[in-house]
Amino acid sequence: MNILIQATYFLAAALFILGLKQMSSPVTARRGIHWAGVGMMLATLVTFLAPELSDNPQAFTNYILIIIAIAIGGGYAWVTGKKVAMTDMPQMIAMYNGMGGGAAATIAAVELLKAQGEVAAGAEPAGLLGALGLQSPALVPANISEAMGTDITILAILGAMIGTIAFSGSIIAWAKLDGRLNTSKLLPKQQLINLVLALVMVGFGVAVFFTGDLMPIVVFFALALILGVFITVPVGGADMPVIISLFNALTGLAVGFEGYVLGNAAMIIAGTVVGSAGTLLTHLMAKAMNRSVSSVFFSGFGTTQVASAGAVEGGGSMKEIQGQDVGIMMAYASQVVIIPGYGMAVAQAQHKVWELTQLLTEKGVKVKFAIHPVAGRMPGHMNVLLAEAGVPYDLIYDMEDINADFQNTTVTLVIGANDVVNPAAKNDPSSPLFGMPILNAEQSDNVIVIKRGRGTGFSGVENPLFLLDNTRMLFGDGQKAVNELIQAVKEL
Amino acid sequence: MIEGLAALYIFMLAGFTGFEIISKVPVILHTPLMSGSNFVHGIVLVGAMIALGIAENPTQQVIGFIAVLLAAGNAVGGYVVTERMLEMFKASGKKGAAGEKK
Q1: What Cα–Cα distance (Å) separates residue A334 from each residue in A339, A367, A407, A448, A486?
Q2: What whole-number distance in Å separates Cα of residue A365 and Cα of residue A342?
Q3: Catalytic choice (A55, A419, A445, A469)
Q4: Residue range A50-103, pLDDT digits in tens
Q5: CB pair distance less than 8 Å for B50 and A245
Q6: Would you tell me which of A52, A104, A226, B99 could form a disulfide with A163, CB atoms 3.0–4.6 Å apart?
């Protein structure tokens, strides 16, 4: 039986790696997730046969509990995952990731509590028998690390810490992206408090290692939970994808560590692969935004916001334009670049945008899509939406490939994007966005911004692009606005 | 089962594997891949099942139950979301290929 279980875990680990490999190419991506899914299914089923489970006196109750828990947790995720709109994908990824982190942390909690129970149980008879000299002290674990083994204890505590932070952090990320939590300020001197909190938490982690008491374990987990919240609340705007990706990597790592604790190779391999892949992905994202991962992790976003907002205000005013005029402008343009952002996703305007693109192409206008690395709320998010609408790959350009081309562009159409075209990132050192590479929309002859209202973007930073002389604002819902453009182009 | 040093080698090799997989990914697949890797660490479900399976008292059972609940959410949710995203790539891939033939 053991051979069967081990062989299945081996197969599952291989399927995960092959699946992820295939997911890295658009052609084989779908097969990739299916392979990984088969691996997961096999690993889950075979775990029911594990001798650790059937040897337990509580086996029957536990089997029932496992099935109920899978039904509830899996059922909830199935329904929400099927129902969620494409635009809300990022926060759902954050949510499911948080659940994984929480699972890794709770596994560590079970293991630590078991060891703590052994120490506590050993302590009482040791008092009596030890006094009589009947029991050698070496047989009774004096603390948790002795009960579990040094290496296992260290990794269990590390995994617990990382998993718990990823859990509470991801839940906060979900709440912020879902619009349930709008505050970015929690406490003054947040960074200092976080640092102190982290040190105290590590202190309690060490205490868990060296003692057999229940109290340090509870405090340790509570502090890790709070730290995850404190780290994530100040993060806002464009930094959100980075922090979600980071939590994804951290959860992977925590899973790998707990895999070692349980002696489960499949968990070690899958967790570590995700941990390293996620770390690299996080780094790539942060690099695209010209922010270091540590600055995202440890600093609040928008602390200098007030100063820059004041600087912008006197600079000019927004100039409105009607859809009719924009349509004519675009129909006679030589090149149109469309910059989609989260607003397009919210308005579900991607299909209309593709319709407009086809109309313009028929009229001989060259249409290109410019995708900022963090457009939407995650890298690739816009590509997914445009792919959904049927826009072919060869019209979609990355930032590096298109930025030099804006000079040759007649009309740049910005739909629901804001921070990624904010020139303050280039020339206003006081702006919180300063240093982030942006799409050079302002270099084209005309910039049309489709926007719902006059408010700021997701990061809450004012955008001087909207005030430039070659910029016109087309206020309204993205889908309606694009519809107007389609009508205008058709009528020509 | 997995002893100290062997585990260290597994950690190292798996680490390099993950690095290698990601380094060749086009930007358009970053979100699906993040979601896909999110699904893969849903393997924590296996560990959660064992943690609940070896639980001996109600406290451990409650915590283990939560572990399985959360892990199942991670695995199932990760799969469903990734599948839905990649489904679109298939559709657009076909259209894109058709467009190239023109």
Answers
A1: 17, 9, 12, 15, 17
A2: 25
A3: A419
A4: 888 888 888 889 999 999 999 999 999 999 999 988 778 888 999 999 999 999
A5: no
A6: A104
The tens digit of pLDDT for each residue in A6-27 reads 999 999 999 999 999 888 887 7
Which residues lie below 8 Å from residue A471, measured CB to CB, with a gap of 6+?
A318, A319, A442, A446, A447, A448, A449, A465
Could B46 and A47 be called an inter-chain contact, meaning their C-beta atoms sit closer than 8 Å? yes
Rg (CA), chain B: 19
CA distance B29 to chain A (A): 6
- DSSP letter at A211? -
* Range among A134-148, B26-40, B71-85 rated most confident: B71-85
Which pLDDT score is estimated for A45? 95
CA atoms of A478 and A473, how far apart (whole Å): 12
Query: A267: Cβ–Cβ under 8 A, 6 or more apart, which residues?
Result: A255, A256, A258, A259, B43, B44, B46, B47
State which residue of chain B sits closest to A38, comparing Cα positions.
B79
Q: Which of A19, A40, A383 sits opposite B28 (nearest CB)?
A: A383
Give yes or no for residue A335 having a pLDDT over 60: yes
A184-211 mean pLDDT: 86
Rg of the Cα trace of chain A?
27
pLDDT at A10: 93
Distance set, CA B43 to CA A16, A129, A238, B97 (Å): 10, 44, 30, 35
Backbone angles phi and psi of A449, in degrees to 5: -110, 115
Per DSSP, B54 falls in state T
Q: Do B36 and A103 touch (CB under 8 A)?
A: no
pLDDT digit string (tens) for A105-128?
A: 999 999 998 888 888 887 655 445
Average pLDDT over residues A292-303: 60
Helix (H, G, I), strand (E, B) or coil at A76: helix
Q: Do A44 and B71 touch (CB under 8 A)?
A: no
Contacts with A, B 41-60, CB within 8 Å: 41-57, 59-60
Give CA–CA dist A146/B33, Å, rounded.
40
Q: Which residues are CB-neighbours of B33 under 8 A, at least 6 positions away? A: A20, A23, A24, A277, A281, A380, B22, B25
Q: What pTM, to 2 d.p., does this model score?
A: 0.78
Chain mean position to CA A314: 37
Mean pLDDT of all residues in B69-92: 85
User: How far is the C-alpha of A453 from the C-alpha of A83, rounded, in Å?
Assistant: 28
What tokens were used for A226? Answer: 């709070």
Q: What are phi and psi of A348, to 5 degrees?
A: 55, 40
Question: Please, which residues bridge with residue A471 across strands?
Answer: A447
Plot region of A133 (φ>0 → left; ψ -120 to 50 → alpha; else → beta): left
The pair of three-digit structure tokens given for residue A192, joined into one six-digit string: 């200092």
**Cβ atoms of residues A74 and B76 within 8 Å:** yes
Residues of B in Cβ contact (< 8 Å) with A369:
none
A366, containing H or E segment? strand A366-371
- Outline where A55-143 has alpha helix (H): 59-83, 89-132
